[in-house]
Specification:
The chain is mainly alpha-helical. It has 15 helices and no strands. The chain is elongated.
C-alpha cells in the first residue's frame, strides 16, 4: 500500500509544471507580499527588468526567451538571489533536481531573507523524499507568508510522505480555504483521497476519487484515482473480515 501511495503522490506532484510550486503569476503575487531585504534593494534595476522579462516569457511557455533574459539578469547581478530562486523553480519544473538544489542554495546564501526560496526548497525536498527538511523550509516561508496556499499544499505533501495523514488533511483543507482550487482544480481531491485512505476512512476517500473521475474521467490523474480506488476496495474487504 505504501508503495502505491508513494507512486500516486509522485504523479500528483509532477503531472503539471505549473502545479508543482507556483505559476509565474503566483510568483509575482508572492513577491508583493514579501519583506524586502537590504540585499534585495541593492540589486540594479536593469537586472530586475531582465528577471521580469524572464518570468513573463516563462508564463508564455517561451523557454528560450526566458533563459535568455534570466542569464542576462545574472550577468548584471551575479549574486541576484531572486534570479537564482526563479531558476531553481524552473529546474524543479524540468525535474533537474541537482541543478535546482545548487540554484536554491545559492539564492539562500545570497539572501537568507528571501521567503519564496524557502517555498521552492520545500517543494524540492519533497520531491527528494526529505520530508522533515521540507517542513523546516516551509515553516520559514510561512513566517513571511502565512496565507500562501502553495505552502499549505507543499506541507500537505510533506505530511503525506511522513504518513501523518491527519496533519496532511489539515493542510489540504487549509490550502483549499486559501484558494488552491483555483490553481489545482480537481487534483486536490486525489490528494485528499490519499489522506483519507491513510486514515482508513474508505467511504470518504472513495467519494473524493469518484468526484475527480466524474469531473475528469480522462484526466491526467484518472489512472491514479482508479488505482487507489481498487486498493481501497481491497483494504475495505480485508477490514470487514
Amino acid at each position: 500500500m505504501r508503495l502505491r501511495l508513494a507512486i500516486a503522490l509522485l504523479l500528483l506532484a509532477t503531472f503539471s509544471p505549473a502545479q508543482k510550486t507556483l505559476s509565474p503569476h503566483d510568483i509575482s503575487k508572492a513577491r508583493q507580499r514579501e519583506t524586502v531585504s537590504a540585499k534585495s534593494l541593492s540589486v540594479p534595476e536593469k537586472a530586475r527588468e531582465e528577471l521580469f522579462k524572464a518570468v513573463t516569457a516563462y508564463s508564455r511557455h517561451d523557454a528560450q526567451a526566458s533563459q535568455h533574459h534570466l542569464e542576462a539578469s545574472l550577468r548584471i547581478a551575479p549574486d541576484f538571489a531572486e534570479a537564482f530562486s526563479f531558476r531553481g523553480f524552473v529546474e524543479i519544473s524540468a525535474n533537474r533536481f541537482d541543478a535546482a538544489m545548487d540554484d536554491l542554495q545559492h539564492s539562500l546564501r545570497a539572501d537568507p531573507a528571501l521567503p519564496i526560496t524557502y517555498l521552492y526548497m520545500g517543494s524540492l525536498l519533497n520531491h527528494l523524499g526529505r520530508y522533515d527538511e521540507a517542513l523546516a523550509s516551509l515553516d520559514r516561508n510561512a513566517q513571511f507568508d502565512p496565507r500562501s496556499w502553495s505552502c499549505a499544499y507543499e506541507r500537505a505533501r510533506s505530511w503525506l510522505g511522513k504518513h501523518e495523514y491527519e496533519h496532511a488533511l489539515v493542510e489540504i483543507n487549509r490550502a483549499v480555504a486559501l484558494g488552491a482550487e483555483a490553481r489545482m482544480g480537481n487534483a486536490l481531491r486525489i490528494l485528499r483521497g490519499n489522506a483519507l485512505y491513510g486514515l482508513k476512512q474508505y467511504d470518504q476517500a472513495t467519494a473524493e476519487l469518484q468526484a475527480y473521475l466524474s469531473a475528469e474521467p480522462d484526466g491526467k490523474l484518472a489512472s491514479v484515482a482508479r488505482d487507489l480506488m481498487s486498493h481501497i476496495d481491497r483494504d475495505a474487504i480485508v477490514a470487514e473480515k
